[in-house]
Design goal:
alpha+beta; Dna Ligase, domain 1; four-stranded antiparallel β-sheet; 575 residues; six-stranded antiparallel beta barrel; 21 strands; MutS, DNA mismatch repair protein, domain I; 16 helices; single chain
């Protein structure tokens, strides 16, 4: 059953923002026909180019045929975001907070801002005027109940009366749903849904809103629910305000370069206390602290620590004192990626590490700054004392062993369960090497397995006659898998003893792998082929099977097996 959530929103929209940003950076006038090319098609076209017959989605050749003087500009998301900051700052001359949903589109909670300016029409006029005067950009503003209605209203500079959003949206085509998608991957998914709806004869948002909610959920899943609610003039969540508070920083310069750990205890305490006072004086609290240091040799060291300590008196200072001290100890000792680790040589005759360089300055920068009382609490309550002690212990170990001594697991893009695990230093925000949002053809289907061993374990897959099962290059399985044997864990004394028993045919020391007992196959699915990096020397080609193994009368274990190079291996175990 749908839970109705309606928020009155004002939307500020800059038409064709990617091409506006590109033309601004290139110094082109507004009357120059221009377009932004991404891949094989144009993603944004200026008004002058549109009047000459250039359309979005056209190829470069077709666009230049229609307008030979067309300026083709490159796509740059960083540029679009960077230049849109000027528009956001200009809008904040009229309202106290905005949410940047994507470059070119901002959302403002309309109720409070409209009361301040007198009406929603006055709010729209104030926003358009502020952006024109302070950023030199023309924009459009609309207001309505719900996100999609507000976006469509902004594109036509309208104010939709309260309670009329569903009727306002009804005649709009279903492909208008893509305007409310704020990310590229989400937009592509919504465009696919709109294509399916159109083929089914559901061509307007009114047609979609008239469908039963339960039927939409059953047929189209979460994206269908999202689309149905927006088509009905509803929302999923209120906007998140963009605040103007800047980072707060303190700096300590050593009178003499610090090269002994004993010198750091007092400095760490003073620096943490100074940052705490600066935050309290500003009435702020932060979510992260960036610790920076400069060495006598000019090296710049930097590390980010996350903090979830609230406003308890003295708690933040004590919390950060230990973390600053531990980080400085790691840098001076060369064990935490500091001055010594930065130039750590390979193992040589001496096998040593260069002497770390002394520190000449220390800086603390509070990031993710929010006003006091605006901290987001955890869903099931705050951080307990046990949580804090566990974090403290992990961070202390990291200070002793170095940055890479304590790792946390995060998800990244990939096809196999092992590839999708990303190890990052505890407390650090290391971006994944492979984006999750990218398409990964051949990825192991969900649900993902719960246990992935550190290294794949060899396995035997046998048919009913005990012969090895193989998979051809055409993905033909030689026979139905009947038995599976996994290489025994060396610490499993029972498996080792069973293989040394006279009945196993072995006496004394067993050479080669030791196999666990054979387990019958209850069922299996696959194979899924995965061929990666075929153009390089480290190319790999594997086929995966999901196999349910009978462990006993009432116990079944599901595993993921991979076949490649004529051998089987255990990749992961399901719950």
């Amino acid at each position: 059953m749908s839970v109705i959530t309606v928020v009155r929103r004002a939307v500020l929209w800059v038409p064709d923002w990617p091409v506006v940003a590109a033309m601004t950076e290139a110094g082109l006038g507004a009357d120059v026909p221009a377009a932004v090319l991404h891949g094989r098609g144009l993603i944004a076209v200026s008004a002058a180019a549109r009047s000459a017959g250039v359309r979005r989605g056209s190829t470069r050749r077709l666009a230049q045929r229609a307008c030979p003087e067309l300026a083709i500009l490159p796509h740059d998301e960083g540029r679009d975001s960077r230049l849109f900051e000027a528009v956001a700052a200009a809008a904040e001359q009229a309202v106290s907070g905005v949410e940047i949903s994507r470059p070119g589109l901002m959302i403002i909670p309309a109720d409070g801002a409209a009361r301040f300016h007198g009406s929603e029409e006055a709010l729209a006029e104030a926003l358009v005027t502020a952006v024109a005067e302070h950023a030199g950009i023309e924009c459009a503003v609309g207001a309505a109940d719900g996100l999609l209605a507000a976006v469509l209203a902004a594109r036509s500079s309208e104010v939709v009366p309260a309670g009329a959003s569903r009727e306002y949206l009804a005649p709009a085509p279903v492909d208008s749903l893509a305007l409310a998608a704020m990310e590229r991957a989400q937009r592509q998914e919504v465009e696919r849904l709109a294509s399916v709806l159109t083929r089914l004869g559901i061509v307007t948002l009114g047609d979609l809103a008239a469908l039963p909610f339960a039927d939409v959920l059953a047929r189209f899943g979460p994206v269908g629910v999202w689309a149905h609610r927006l088509a009905s003039g509803e929302d999923l969540a209120p906007p998140v305000l963009r605040r103007t508070e800047e980072d707060i920083a303190v700096e300590h310069v050593f009178e003499d370069p610090a090269e002994r750990i004993e010198q750091l205890v007092h400095v760490a305490k003073e620096a943490a206390a100074a940052l705490d006072r600066a935050l309290l004086d500003a009435g702020m609290r932060c979510g992260r602290v960036r610790i920076t240091a400069r060495t006598e040799k000019g090296q710049e060291l930097e590390r980010v620590w996350r903090t979830d300590v609230g406003t308890r008196a003295g708690a933040f200072a004590r919390h950060m004192t230990d973390r600053v001290r531990w980080q400085l100890e790691g840098w001076l000792s060369g064990t935490a990626g500091g001055p010594g680790a930065a130039h750590r040589p390979g193992v040589g005759p001496a096998g040593g590490v260069p002497e770390p360089s002394p520190l000449v300055s220390l800086g603390l920068v509070a990031e993710d700054v929010v006003p006091l009382g605006a901290e987001q609490a955890y869903l099931w309550g705050g951080v307990s004392g046990a949580d804090s002690r566990a974090h403290r212990a992990l961070e202390r170990v990291q200070g002793l062993l170095g940055l890479e001594g304590v790792l946390a697991v995060a998800e990244q893009g990939g096809r196999s369960p092992r590839d999708r695990a990303h190890l990052a230093p505890w407390g650090q925000e290391a971006p994944p090497a492979r984006a999750i949002a990218h398409p990964w053809p051949g990825r192991i289907p969900d649900p993902p397995p719960a246990t992935v061993p550190p290294a794949a374990r060899p396995a035997l897959v046998l048919d009913a006659g005990g012969a090895p099962v193989t998979i051809s290059r055409r993905l033909a399985v030689s026979a139905s898998p009947t038995w599976v044997r996994i290489e025994a864990d060396p610490s499993d004394e029972r498996a080792q003893a069973a293989n040394r028993h006279p009945s196993s045919g072995h006496v004394g020391r067993v050479e080669g792998p030791v196999w666990d007992r054979p387990r019958p196959v209850e069922s299996w699915a696959g194979p899924w082929p995965v061929s990666e990096r075929w153009w390089s020397e480290d190319a790999s080609r594997s086929a995966y099977l999901q196999v349910a193994l009978r462990d006993g009368e009432d116990t079944v274990t599901a595993v993921l097996l991979a076949y490649g190079g004529g051998e089987w291996r255990l990749e992961a175990v399901y719950d």
